[in-house]
Amino acid sequence: xxxxxxxxxxxxxxxxxxxxxxxxxxxxxxxxxxxxxxxxxxxxxxxxxxxxxxxxxxxxxxxxxxxxxxxxxxxxxxxxxxxxxxxxxxxxxxxxxxxxxxxxxxxxxxxxxxxxxxxxxxxxxxxxxxxxxxxxxxxxxxxxxxxxxxxxxxxxxxxxxxxxxxxxxxx
Length: 171
Description:
Layout: E1 3-5, H1 6-10, E2 18-20, H2 21-39, E3 48-50, E4 72-76, E5 78-79, E6 83-84, H3 96-107, H4 122-126, E7 139-143, H5 152-155, E8 162-164, H6 165-168
Parallel strand pairs: 1-3
Antiparallel strand pairs: 2-8, 3-4, 4-7, 5-6
């Protein structure tokens, strides 16, 4: 609900579709938040579009300085008319309102590291929603922290087994 997995549906040759369970939970929760708080099933507003996370077994990738351990992801920018991708914050088709709602949905998630929300739109930076970083004119980068330790009776439900985003993030 509220998100689309670009990696799987539009880029089948790219294998940055893997992450830890915790990032999947964050993506789902942020997608629901974005859908309920802003998008509300309107076809003229793009869903939150997830792109690169990590390689199947993690490790270094030539595509990213990070994205090595399954706890970082990218979000493709929405543009006006309900589409996403192929735009930059400075383009006339870029949907700043939807991007602001996506950033707020991410910031509402307790596991998201608010210091690693990178995107270069000066208007959204001035609102304190993101930070500038080279190479982030056409997508949002986010990372999650390791969740706090839980009591042993709940630990099994929060196990950190790797998973494939293809299975859990298709809509």
